[in-house]
Amino acid sequence: MTGIDNKKIGLILSGGGARAAYQVGVLKAIHKILPKEAKNPYDIIAGTSAGAINGVALASYAENHRIGIRHLERIWTSFSPELIYRTDFKGVVSALARLTRTTLIGRKYKHDRVSLLDNSPLRTLLSKVIHFDNIQKAIDNGALHAMCVTGSGLDSGESVSFFQGHYSIVNWQRHRRIGYRSRIGIDHLMASSAIPMIFPSVKINQEYYADGAVRQLAPISPALHLGAEKILVIGVSGEAHKRKEKVQITGYPTPAKVMGHMLNAAFLDSMETDVERLQRINRTVDRIPESVRKKHGMELKPIELLEINPSESMDEIAGRHVQELPRVIRLALGGSGNTSRNGSGILSYLLFSSGFCKDLIALGYKDGLARQDEIERFFSNHMAEKGTANEKSA
């Protein structure tokens, strides 16, 4: 069928801890909008932090996309904090003790894994629910072109995108950004989701890595290096592109408030900035005639972009579910975080509870369906497949 857009589509799943449940709702809505016969619509999947977990899970089901979406939703709706990190009193106190001991006597305990929380339960969970071997099978069979997981090197200071994909893709290197061919496994996911000081860093090869959102100045870049020509970004910022109203200061910021601010800076700001940068480049390229670009050897072309962000504040949603966080964790955070204004920013990252995740999935599903016309235009090749199927049946 002529006129079908066959550009490679890249899916960008940003980080954000428990906020990433929202992405599952959007993916579910897209699946609902596309025809049932459609194959995996994402040629390239790039994920960071919790978004990397979603991305790898989705990639492992690239040959059966419908089952993959249901599998993701089933995982998130059955979540509870103790499946992600230790919530028992002994586990929390032990983690805090290691952190304090290493801070005070670092030389003696330099090999301790230090963090506010012990996320060893997450490693156990991921090893059970993600079939890593299926990723290469999907690539070999053409159901997936490539996928990558990004981590932040603590020694080198580089943002490293570990990718697994088609043999034609080569490693790349930019200023503090590199792409490195790897066989994606559990360590890559644990490293990419290792929120600094909250979850422990993970050693891959000869370096320790922390959450990929840290120092990731260009979150869209890895997908472009892997060959994406159209980009779908599913963000987790309910305040994207909106200026917040000033509130009256009632006291010194709580530790949870400060940590929430730092997490927002790491997870949200760089993605919003990169999206804005891509939009500005697209406008510039559109003003330069194609003939002029060819004449002067300009390897520039507009990248179609579709960005979907939460229509509601995730902090406020988290504030409604604060009691679902284990009491010992609330105490570890200094007792703050009881409302959206005094600390639920950090709660929205750590609140891996069924109620909160279900609300975010429902919000993502609603927001996705509200963008149906844009989604259909973006996935025009898959909608064209639907038209062809209808013609044959007639």
Brief overview, please?
By secondary structure, the chain is α/β, with parallel strands linked by helices. The protein is built from 16 helices and 10 strands.
Explain the overall architecture.
By secondary structure, the protein is α/β, with parallel strands linked by helices. The two termini are 16 Å apart. The model is unreliable at 336-343 and 386-394 (pLDDT under 50). It contains 16 helices and ten strands. Helix 1 links the parallel strand 1 (9-13) and strand 2 (44-48). Strands 1, 2, 3, 4, 5, 6, 7, 8, 9 and 10 form a ten-stranded mixed sheet that branches. The longest helix has 32 residues, at 255-286. The protein has a single domain (9-242, 252-384), classed as 3-Layer(aba) Sandwich (Cytosolic phospholipase A2 catalytic domain). Helix 9 packs across helix 13 and helix 15 crosses helix 16.
CATH class: Alpha Beta
Distance between the termini: 16 Å
Count of separate structural domains: 1
- Portion of residues in beta strands equals 5-15%
The strand count comes to 10
CATH-defined fold name: Cytosolic phospholipase A2 catalytic domain
Element order, helices and strands? EHEHHHHHEEEEHEEHEHHEHHHHHH
Judging by the overall fold, what is the CATH architecture? 3-Layer(aba) Sandwich
